[in-house]
Amino acid sequence: AATLGSGHKRLLLSLFTSSFLSAAPAQAQIIHAGQACVVKEDNISERVYTIREGDTLVLQCLVTGHPRPQVRWTKTAGSASDKFQETSVLNETLRIEKIQRLQGGRYYCKAENGVGVPAIKSIRVDVQYLDEPVLTIHQTISDVRGSFYQEKTVFLRCTVNSNPPARFIWKRGAETLSHSQDNGVDIYEPLYTQGETKVLKLKNLRPQDYASYTCQVSVRNVCSIPDKSITFQLTNTTAPPALKLSVNETLVVNPGDNITMQCSLTGGDPQPEVVWSHSPGPMPPNSLVQGGNLTIWRIRVEDSGYYNCTAINNVGNPAKKTVNLLVRSMKNATFQITPDVIKESETIQLGQDLKLSCHVDAVPQEKVVYSWYKNGKPARFSDRLLITRNDPELPPVTCSLEIIDLRFSDYGTYLCVATFQGAPIPDLSVEVNISSETVPPTVSIPKGQSTITVREGSRAELQCEVRGKPKPPIIWSRVDKETPMPSGTMTMETYDGKLRLESVSREMSGTYKCQTARYNGFNIRPREALVQLNVQFSPVVEPAFQDVRQGMGRSVTLRCTMLKGSPMKVATSVWRFNGTLLAQPLAEQQDYSELKVDSVSRETSGSYECSISNDVGVSTCLFQVSAKAYSPEFYYDTPNPTLSQKQSKNYSYVLQWTQKEPDAVDPILKYRLEVRQLAQRNTIQTFIPVQKMEKGLLLEHILPNLKVPQSYEVRLTPITSFGAGDMAARIIRYME
């Protein structure tokens, strides 16, 4: 026994057990603590937890095992139509506030402690809900054979989303209708509706059938979900919506115009609701909807698109009218010079054919008018000078000027002008000079520029020299990776042949290709060249931190390894001990640095830091070296750990633990035990001698004279010849 403090209380020290508990596999059990409607055993292997949508789901995974298992919650989707999804919660309690229907499904609790097979338990969460029902009306009129009158049939279709499947009740006024109640009523479920729809069919409509109809849906008050209903007044004027537009289905306007599109109702009872929408994207900010009128002020090119006017009154199908709104625009005027295709020429030669092409991106494209000028005067067309529109070899609505049998007199400056006739859109023009100096392009990389090496975060410039007349744009792309350029697109266009990259990253390393564009130049096979970009970056090392334990007097080798870096070579390595520089010669190895501590002692224990440089940057490995013992691991699965002493209103607790990796350091001599009642400051300290220590040996100590029903914090620290090791703490709670 040991004396504890001035209170002269005694703690009885039990003998250590001789049994071994090298490990105990994880066990798991799921319990619920949230707002469940019911938890039932659906079958032998599955438990079902029913909860109302919007309530709070709380599931707890109770685990046993030694060492203490780690708990991970995962989920599979609730239905086959949903993609598999997984959410991970590393906690014994899974809590979902305001649960939604898509969060229903099977939840798995996985308990794992590295011993044996992980324990996996599951429970299916069934989320119950009942949406507002939707009632639609459809009417058919058919001729009756042999008669001169028509038969009118009405279908009232009631649809609802619910879980569990809803029960439908149809009422005419206050009267509940049943299937085949009379010859004029039929109630049925359409095919392929999975119990979500019921149809009330009124055959050969009679005067008494013009009445108020109610569809009532119920999930039989499961989870206290109330019934819901919807009512429709059927009259002899009930009709689906009809619309007409004040503008054509295709409307072409000029930028800056103010336009109003009117969508008028021409039918429908009850009064339909009219809604405007835009695709793609939302309605423009400079628009206003008032009833069936849509007004757009100072219209912009980006306001183009399809505008849909829809009228709905739940009778028949919605009425829909669509306007394709086109805002006139012209941009990107380009030209092409195509040498004689038949002779497969790539240069301009007298006596061969030559084609000049002109194109603009316009809306509407087909309304563009092209005009050609030579040396400032309108081009005179002849049997040698032909105009072609919609050349099949070129983009749509491209205008070409073809010169047959090129002569010296054909040299000159040609101007192509694109116009929207009668519209206030500025003309676009592009100029092409044809002479003996007009030659196809060549591409080369300046000397010393084929490989560019820069540091991460800096600026890089890749250069491609283009010669020729005219000089076409240069298109840059990546060769070795299917990744976009820094701009986000797969290609980048430059007019001076230079690709400028700001704040480069290591992912930008690789081979880049520059090639001539086929526009604003010769329409021939592109010329291309390659540039290699090397981005240097600081080394990435491991371990970032390592806790190294070793017995007193033993040696230990520390290694800091370079995993990644550019250049991938250790230039210098510097070791420090507790901030003091150590003399360490550079080893021959190229990707790591080592330091050997010959003898671990109190003097050599501490923080070792290795800084590795590759001449670009420095990264550090940190090692904490000591002979400290690892912490004990409490055993939580002790059967009946609480021993009550009813007469004295005290209780005892059987504290059990194993020692983590006892052979890693010097033998453990004793344990320091600290016991403190929660909400109090005083701590009772004692020491527990160790008679035998092996890995997996279950150690035991009885804590007596604990007050009912108080809880206590227990701290346990192993002691070796080096000193105190790592402490472990847990809370002891009184249980009947």
UniProtKB/TrEMBL annotation:
Residues in Fibronectin type-III domain copies: 638-736
PROSITE patterns recorded: FN3, IG_LIKE
Pfam entry (one): Ig_3
A GO molecular function held by the record: axon guidance receptor activity
Keywords: Immunoglobulin domain, Signal
Domain Ig-like residues, every copy: 25-124, 133-231, 241-324, 339-433, 440-532, 539-626
First and last residue of the signal peptide: 1-28
Domain of life: Eukaryota
GO biological process, one term: homophilic cell adhesion via plasma membrane adhesion molecules
Stored SMART domains: IG, IGc2
A cellular component term, taken from the record's GO annotations: plasma membrane
Protein name, UniProt field: MDGA1 protein
Native source species: Steatornis caripensis (Oilbird)
